[in-house]
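Design request, tokens follow.
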């Protein structure tokens, strides 16, 4: 962790602990891509990596998304700790970057029902995968997902292991960063970190 801090001295980490429980996170856009109703709430959770609060998504929508309004990053990294808790259709947690709006962004996610990590672009609400790897994603356990992005190059790290290196040209401009789930996933998020320019 010390090495990370040294490398990214200006990295920002949000642990949600100073936010009001029972409400969406202040300064974030809590919404979804597509239909349904996402439900993004700050809640207390005893298992939180940094006590006491987490960001929980417990609604049902095509793709629930929640992004930080005051971010605008072209090259850098985004990282989050997440715990897939429940979901019959999906148990997914992900990070989004270069977010233009709720329908246009990059996303990498890990899914506990499929045991894989995938990187996508979502353009006008349509999600298309451009690289995928099978790896064990355990439900009910906290995981760490990170994406480093520079130009058209992306590196995805899951629980400390580099799992995907990919390139894509869809979004070259800076954008916001945030978190993502799918369908009926009930997912907890904590220690959301990002840095970039």
């Amino acid at each position: 962790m010390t090495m990370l801090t040294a490398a990214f001295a200006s990295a920002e980490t949000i642990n949600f602990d100073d936010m009001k429980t029972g409400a969406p996170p202040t300064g974030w856009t809590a919404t979804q891509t597509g239909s349904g109703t996402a439900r993004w709430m700050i809640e207390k959770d005893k298992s939180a990596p940094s006590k006491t609060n987490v960001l929980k998504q417990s609604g049902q929508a095509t793709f629930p998304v929640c992004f930080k309004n005051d971010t605008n990053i072209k090259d850098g990294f985004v990282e989050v700790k997440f715990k897939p808790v429940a979901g019959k259709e999906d148990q997914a947690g992900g990070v989004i970057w270069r977010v233009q709006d709720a329908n246009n962004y990059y996303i990498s996610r890990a899914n506990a029902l499929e045991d894989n990590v995938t990187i996508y672009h979502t353009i006008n609400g349509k999600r298309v995968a451009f690289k995928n790897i099978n790896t064990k994603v355990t439900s009910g356990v906290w995981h760490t997902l990170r994406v480093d992005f520079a130009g058209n190059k992306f590196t995805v790290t899951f629980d400390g292991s580099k799992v995907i290196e990919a390139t894509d040209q869809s979004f070259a401009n800076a954008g916001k960063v945030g978190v993502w789930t799918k369908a009926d996933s009930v997912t907890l998020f904590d220690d959301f970190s990002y840095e970039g320019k």
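Comment from the thread starter after seeing the answer: thanks! The mean pLDDT is 95.
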